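It would be a great kindness if you could assist me with a short task in structural biology. A protein sequence and the structure tokens that stand for its backbone fold form the material at issue. I should value your view on which stretches of the chain appear to form regular backbone elements. The record follows directly beneath this note.
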Amino acid sequence: MALSAWSNKWGMSLNYDKCKILSFCKHASNCITYDYTLTDKSGASINIERVNTVTDLGVSVDNELSFSQHVYDNINMAYKMVGIIKRVFLCLTKDSFLILFKSLVRPHLEYAHSVWNPYKRGLITDIEKVQK
């Protein structure tokens, strides 16, 4: 209610379809959930959707902060880029492949890595498989 009033006062309309609730819990069974509503300019009450994963600035955050979905999305994109390099460039030297790999594949693996830095052995080995 206060957020809706503040945004209406300052002429900043909210996109209610993009408003989501993400609760961080160690175990989903222990998580206390509340229903939140916003009031639009006409006075109608709108319930905010509760989600388990939110993507913001290209980083997928889940409710357990494991970032595994984000890591696997990046790994899949990196494999796609490797496939494109292999299909498009038929005669590659080791040096030219290295330049293409560093410019097209590694950015997908390293984007915002300080946020989702993997600590699980399985995620680390999956990321390193792309580089091999």
Remarks:
- The chain has a mean pLDDT of 83.
- The helical segments are 2-9, 68-88, 94-110, 113-116, 121-131.
